[in-house]
Amino acid sequence: MPIKIVKRFLGMFVPVAVLLGIGFVGFYENKKNSDRMAIAIAEDQSVRIRAANLANHFSDIRADLMVLAKWTANEEHTLLNSRILPQDRQEFQRLFAKKLLVMSEQKQIYDQIRLLDTTGQEKVRLNFNQGKPGIVPDGDLQNQSQRYWFRNSLTLQEGEVFISPMDLNLDHGKIEQPLKPMIRFVTPIFDGGGMEGIVVLNYLAQNLLNKLGQENTTTTGKTLLLNAQGYWLKGLKPEDEWGFMYEERKNRTFANAFPDAWEQISTLETGQFQTPDGLFSFRTIYPLQDIWSSGANAGISKLSGLSQRVMNVKSYQWKLVTFVPTAVLEQQVRATQPVVLICYIGLTGFLGLGFWFLATLWSKRQQAVADLQQSEAELRKTGADLAASLETIERVNASLEQRVRERTTELQQAKEQAEIANQSKSEFLANMNHELRTPLNGILGYAQIIQRDPETARKHEHGLSTIHHCAFHLLTLINDILDFSKLEVQKMELYPQDFHLGNCLSTTIDICRIKAKQKGIFLDYQADEQLPIAVHADDKRLRQVLLNLLNNAVKFTDEGGVTFQVKVLEGRTNPSQNCQIRFQVEDSGIGIAPNKLAKIFLPFEQAGKRERNAEGTGLGLAISRQIVQMMGGDIHVESVLGEGSIFWFEVELPPATEWIAQAEFSTNRITGYQGDRLTIVMVDDIKANRDVIIDMLEPLGFRVIAAENGQQGLDKIIQIQPDLVITDAIMPVIDGLEMTRHLRKLPNFATTPIIASCAHLSRVDPQETLDAGCTAFLPKPFELTNLLKILHKHLQLEWIEDREQDIGQPSPQDTELTEFVTPPPELLTVLYEAARDGFIGDVQQEAHRLKQIDSQYIPFANKLLELSRNFDDTAIIKLVKPLV
Hints:
Largest sheet: 7 strands, antiparallel
Helix content: 40-55%
Shape: flat
Strand content: 15-25%
Number of helices: 25
Radius of gyration: 41 Å
Structural class: alpha+beta
Distance between the termini: 108 Å
C-alpha cells in the first residue's frame, strides 16, 4: 500500500513542480527587465531635473548681473566720470559698495564682484574670503585690460552677457590651492548709446558642482559633468578632473575612459544607451542659451531696459551625464533572485505536503470504495424511494421557480413605475421652478425699480418693502425645494471664490438682526480677532447655512436672545495656511425634545409647534447639513427642552489667493455713469423680463435694445454692435447659449461681454454657460445690486452717485491707512534708518522681526518684504517715514 501512495504522490507533484518552475523563471526574467527599465527611467529623469536646475541657476546669476548693471547705471555718472569731484565719487563709491556687500552676504556664491571702466581700471572690487565679503581698498585696485574676459566684453552690445569657460582660478600664473573652480559673467554698461564700463561676477563654480552631487534623484547613478572637449569637470575620481589645466593630465578625458560612449554623447543632444561599461544617460547644457531660457529674465530685461540679441549659443556647451556601472546595474536587477528562489521552494514544499495528504486520502478512498461495494445491494433497495422523493422535490422546485419569476416581474414593474414617478416629480419641480421664477422676476424687479424712484410717496415705502420681502421669501422657498431636488439626485455643487469673510458675516447678521429686533430679543455677534480677511469658498452656500441657523434661533426664541460666535480653532503661523473655523449659534429659546433631535435634519421635519412652523418648508436643516458635509464638516446640536439650543459646525477654509478689496456701493445712490452712452441688448422670450431690465437700466443712462429670441437677438447684435449683451439661456428658435457660440466665432464679438441668465436653474448649469463663451451668469429674479456689480466689472464703469448720502463715509486714503496694523514708532526706527542708508538686507531682517513680535504686524511686514525684494528703498521710506 505505501508504494501505491508514493506513485500517486509523484504523479501529481512532479508535473506541478515543473510548471511552477517555468512560471517562476518567466516571472524572474520579466522582473529583471522591469527593474532595468525602472533604473533607465529614473536615470533619464535625474539628468532632466539636474539640467533644468542648472538652467534656473544660470538665470538667477544673470538676474543678479542685470541688477548690478541697473545699480551701476544709476551711479555710473559719479563712479566712472572723471570730472566728478573726488569726495563726491568716494561717497557714491561707498554707497555702491554697501549694496555689493548686501548682495554678496545674501548670495555667498561670488568670489569677486567688480566694476571697471572702459580702460580696464577697477573702480570698485569686492572679494569674498574665508566666508565673509570685503571691499578692496582703492590702493589695491588693478587694471584688468589684458584679461581675456575684459577684451571679449568690449565687443558686447547692450544686454549681452559674456560667460567664460569653467576653469580653475590662477594666482600669479599658478593654480590656486585649494582648487577654486570659477566662471566669469560679464555685461557692459551703456549710457546714451556708448559703453561706460563693465560689471564682472566671478562665480564660485564649486557651488554648482556641489549641487550636482547633492540633488539625489536616483540611488544608483553617478553624476558627471564634461566640457565640449570631453574633459572631466566633475568625474568619477578627483584626480581625473580639470585635465586641460594640467600638462600631465592632458590624456585624462572621458573619451579615453569610455570611447564608445563618447562617440554617441559628443554627437547627440540628449539620449540614453548601454555599453559593456554600463548605462549612460546624458543631456547637452548650453549656458549661453539657458541664461535666457527662464521667464524671469523677461522681468529683468524690462527692469534694466535691455533686450536680448541673437548669439551663437552652440559654441559653448557642457555634457551632463549619469553613469551606472554594469556591476551595479546587475546587482540591482538581481536583487530579487533570492526572494524568487525562496518563494519557489516554499510553495513547492507546501504543495508537496498537500499532494502527500491527497495521496493518503486517495488510498483511504480506495478502501472506502471496497466497503461501499458491499453495501451496494442495500442502497439499491432504497434507490426507488429516493427516486420518488426526488420527483416530488423537482415538482416543488418548479413551483417555487415560477413564483420567483412572477415576483421578479412584479418588482421590476414597480421599479419602473417608481422611476417614472420620480422623473415626473423632477420635471414637475423644474417646470414649477421656472414658472414661479418668471413672475417673481417681474415682482422683485419692479419693487426694486419703484423703491429707487425718488418720486415714490413715503406712504408707499412700507408696502413696497412688504412686497419685496414676501417675494424674496417665496424665492427662498423655491430655492429650498430646488436644492432638495438636486440633493436627491446628487447634483448640488459648490462654486468657491475669493470673498471678504468679515463683510459676508456682517451682512448675514444684519439680515437676521431685523427680525430679532422686531421680536424684542438681542442678537449678539462675537468674532475672533484672528479671523482671516478673505477666504476661498462658496460664500452663497455658507451664507445660506448661517441664515438658516440664525433664522431658526430667532424664530424659536421669545426671551433673552441669540449669540453668534465665529472663532479660529488653531492659530496660524503663516497667512497662507488653511484656517479651521467654528461657527456656533446659541439661543435661549424653547429647545428641542430629546426624541426629536435625531429627526430635525430629515426633510420636511420641524421640531416646533404648529404655529411656529407656519413659515418655511422644513427643508432648511436638511439642505444646510448636506452643504456643510460637502464643505468637509457636519452640523452638530445640543439642546435642553425649555432652556435653549446650540448648533455648530467646523470647516477648513483656505485663504484667498486673488482677492482684491472692493468698495461696496449702494444702488440707491447711483444715478448714472460717466462717459459716452453705452448700448445693451436684452434677449429674452418673456416680455416682463425684458421690461424689468429696460426699466432698471434706462434711468441710469443706458440704451437698451430688446429682442424676443436668439435669432432676433443675433441679427440685432450684429447690426448694432452693442457694448454688452444680456441673454436668457433657454429660448425658442435659437437659445442663448447657441447664440453666444455664433457670436464668439465672429472677430468683432470675440471679447464682447455676454451675461447669461435663466429661471430654469435645474436645466442650466452656470459652468455650462461659461463653457459656451458667456462672460458671467446672473440668475433670475434679477437683483439690481448684482446686476450693477456685473456691469461695473465688465464695462469698467465709474458710477455717478448722490453725494448727499456719502456724508460720514471714510475717504480712500483713510481706508488705505487702515489696511495694516502698524507697529509703534520705537519698533520702526532701526528699519527706517536701514532703508534710508540703502541696507536692504537689514530692512528684511527687521521685517521678519516684526512678524515674530506680533501676528497683527504680518500684513505690514509682508508689504515691506515685497518692496525690499524689488530694491525699492524709496517706496519703503515713503511707507515708514510718516510712522516714525
